[in-house]
Amino acid sequence: MSVVDGQLSQVPDPEATDPTATAPAPAERDLADLESSLETGLTAARAEAGPEHSLGRLAATVARLRQEVREAHAAADGRALVEMAKGVLVERLHCGPAEAARQLTVLAERAGVPQLELAAEIINQASRDRLSEAARDFLEQAAMGGAEVGGPGRDTADRAVAVRLRTAESSALAASDTQSVAESLLEHALAPLGAVGVAVWAAGADGSLTLAGFAGFTPEDGARWHHVPPGVATPARRALIERGAQWFTSLAVSGLPSIGQREIPEGGRVVVPAGTGGRVLGVLEIAWPQPLDPQPPAVQRQVEALAELCAHTLETTRPSAASGLPPTAQPGVDPTLSELVDLADGLLDSALVLRPHLDVHGRLVDFRIHHTNIHFVDPAGRPRGAVTGALLLEAYPMAGGDSGLLAKIEHVHATGESFRTERMALTALVDQVPLTAAAGVSITRHGENVLLIWRVQDEAARVANLLQHAQRLGRIGGFEENLVTGQITWNSQLFTLYGLAATEAPIPLTRLPAHAHPDDADTIGRFLRALLHHRRPTSAAFRLQRPDGVARYIRVIAEPVLADDGRLVAVRGAYQDISAQHWTEVALAATRDQLAQTEQQAAERNRLALQLQRAIMPPSQGPMEVDGLRIAVRYRPAETEHLVGGDWYDVMVLPSREILLSVGDIAGHGIDAATDMVVLRNALRGLAATGAGPAQLLTWLNLVANHLTERVIATGICALYNPRTRVLRWARAGHLPPILVRGQRATSLPLVKGLLLGAVPEASYEEGRLRLEPDDLLLMYTDGLIERRDRSLEDSLHQLMSMAERTTAGLDQRLDHLLTHSDADTDDDTCLVGIQAR
């Protein structure tokens, strides 16, 4: 058999060899046995190796066993392709499996290509699917020198693109879960393109994203990104909304968070919707280790083909949303369709069951109206039979457009997110004349089908319904009293306000004084005279005495209705329960003076706290030179006066000529925190004069916080610098460690042990040492510089170190840059001390 222009022909057997003689030999070892033998071989190598050759022999043994495992994995991947190619030959040549295997071997030998590549080519010719097109386009682009992806992992000397793609496909189709699919895609198809990470997201009906599988990322990242709630902006979310591939040159530049952003923040990303027939089931996300250049169309089509593989797995491995059972394996049969038809027939509103209509390339172009329920009312007045079975755009051509009904249905079908609106314009053509009706619309997806429900609105009924809800929410009761016939009309809310049953007779206005508090008789009398005698609209507020003994504060508003001759024929108006407003006004009046006094006291207290804090800690301090150190300080109090904090810093030359450097933060705000800050800062100054080390100073300061104050809780750093030895000794009490900027790299000093000041009466502290080199920069700061409510301290610390690495003109400019670009949002004081060695 030969492959010529895509046609297969049988090859005669000149030697009449036994078909069984071409069976694969030697027998392949099981992968589990190979991996087990690796551990056994390591143990044996350690036992056999002598002292002088142990390392070399052990390394050679490890390399040999690992090579065997890799070869076994490759053979297992290749066997699936070979078996698929054999199946194609069996169908084309009408022969048995043994003859097909022999023909495949002979063809490979005559063509001078590996049997695996020939198998992939046979499958491509037989399938003519997206993978075949992607492989052909990629190879054509590579032949022209334009398929480079920009990554060191590109496999130019490995198997052909067709082999890699078909291997990834066979592994995906055979996988039992999406995790295996992600690993296979990365290993076989994407790693040769330079990719280092793959994530497969499953789209939820509520717009959420669930991490169905990933490879190349850490398990911690996988656990952290297991579920993305609706509305969170991520690259995968953008692909889901846009329903198209999104290419990002750099994840950091895009500003969107995603899995693996801490390990490869500057790398490129591509996110592609994974769906079939216009229905998006999830998103395929691929990560590169470096910024991604614009890719040729061949690579883009290859990525889209891989996304389609992910869609197949997402569709077959997760339960159907409607029935909870896996989708049927029979093509074109939807187990939810009959149930959806029954559901539509049970609705009292117009309902249409829509099925997706695909073109010859499998793309969604329209929806077929599969069923209309028995209560269906067409806006154009057509019967059900004229609509059922037609395409949606045929029945309603005006439904097209970017924001029309069809666009809403496509979005629901693609994403599974339901759509509802109280008012949408439905337009139908009657003899080429557009007829528009307003309707409430609901669109939901059920399996592959869509249920469209609408209720054509009657304007008068809609306004009456809105008025009824407004009266109920506003506790308003309306009335009309005919003075000619004596007929009185109340709505249901007015009976509720009066505390009467709906079957009782309404109360006329002339009997209103009998149901009001006696002290309000004059108010009601003026109201009735203005309304009935002077015949002008008026209002009044009074206390209504209900039969159940409850008194309610009511405002009544009424207007006269006059006949053509000027006679008063009727009165209409409304009652409103204003009890809540009245008691609110009473409570406000009772507390107004007390509130004013409290605000005055609070303002005075905060003013004193600010004066105390700023007297000791000025907002900024000029740089100073001390024994080979250049020291600059930036202090920024809280932005609002009522959030006065207890941050402090101190720089002092001790009698021993060592330099004391300290930063601290008192828990809490206000004048108490400011006074506690003064106590600890001055105590540390006095203790430092003893010549003790930083750890001992913090031990004593902890005793001060526990016994000489009212249990102050604080964090702090104490450091002593010796100008002669250039050694900095430091200790911490629950505080963030300093940052050392040496050259162009910023690192955080080791986290030595040390409890918060005031946490326990007896505490011990570790001491760290650091020798400062010329031009070293040491940053000591409080958490007000980096703390955010929506981000961990670890992430904020990484961002601070990144900013600190940027070269600026001098120490002052560097500190100003860090303070200006700090994005902390906790409204806390900020203290920043920069120490630069000369």
Automatic annotation (TrEMBL):
PROSITE patterns registered for this protein in UniProt: ANTAR, PAC
Transmembrane segments: none
ANTAR domain sequence ranges: 62-123
Pfam families per record: ANTAR (PF03861), PAS_3 (PF08447), SpoIIE (PF07228)
Biased segments, Low complexity type: 12-26
Residue numbers spanned by region Disordered: 1-28
Molecular functions per Gene Ontology: phosphatase activity; RNA binding
Keywords: Coiled coil, Hydrolase, Transcription, Transcription regulation
PAC domain mapped to chain residues: 538-590
Sections of the chain in a coiled coil: 588-615
UniProt cross-references to InterPro entries, sorted A to Z: ANTAR, Bact_Sigma-Reg, GAF-like_dom_sf, PAS, PAS-assoc_C, PAS-like_dom_sf, PAS_fold_3, PPM-type-like_dom_sf
Protein name: Serine phosphatase RsbU, regulator of sigma subunit
Organism: Goodfellowiella coeruleoviolacea
